[in-house]
Design goal:
The protein is α/β, with parallel strands linked by helices. It has nine helices and six strands. α3 runs parallel beside α5. The radius of gyration is 17 Å and the shape is globular. The termini are far apart.
Length: 177
């Protein structure tokens, strides 16, 4: 009997609750919003003991320094704790990389450390140098493109299950204009 925890945008919490009930999920241990895990130790603890953690709209965690990314995917974040206990973490997103490969780094660093291993003393800079076109500005690093797309695709194929619209037509609501 596996316990389930979900982190999602606040607006879809009622949807997750309905879906869990409809699927007969008995042990929805924790259902939290992104804001709910920031600065709320009790909420983080409840999510950390789940067997399966679902992070819905995981692309919200694209900036490594943000509070929500740190709370979920940081070195002592919820995802790392669940994985260390032998649990599973599933990240869901319709747009896993909205702008550039740098946005994938915080999630991959947490969930797939072997993928990023042996990339030098600063894995983030190694990731940028390998997969991003970037420049340093007085305001920090500005990523303006990608490179080595075939290699990145090979890495993502190992860790990402991709579905496109033609694969799931019966599950999608009809288009409305």
């Amino acid at each position: 009997d596996l316990s389930l925890g979900v982190i999602c945008p606040a607006i879809v919490r009622p949807h997750w609750l309905r879906e869990a009930q409809a699927m007969g999920v008995d042990r929805l241990e924790a259902l939290s919003s992104y804001n709910g895990v920031v600065g709320n130790f009790a909420e983080r603890q409840r999510l950390s003991v789940c067997d399966i953690l679902i992070v819905d709209e995981a692309h919200f965690c694209k900036h490594a320094e943000s509070q929500r990314t740190t709370a979920i995917f940081g070195s002592d974040g919820i995802a790392k704790t669940v994985l260390a206990r032998g649990g599973m973490v599933w990240c869901l997103s319709g747009t896993p990389m909205p702008r550039n490969p740098a946005e994938l780094f915080p999630v991959l660093r947490s969930l797939c450390p072997v993928t990023l291993a042996n990339r030098g003393p600063d894995p983030y800079m190694a990731w940028l140098n390998r997969f991003c076109e970037w420049t340093a500005t007085r305001h920090g690093i500005k990523v303006y493109g990608s490179k080595n797309d075939d290699l990145l695709r090979d890495i993502l194929d190992k860790v990402m299950l991709r579905r496109i619209v033609k694969d799931v037509p019966n599950d999608l609501p009809p288009l409305r204009w």
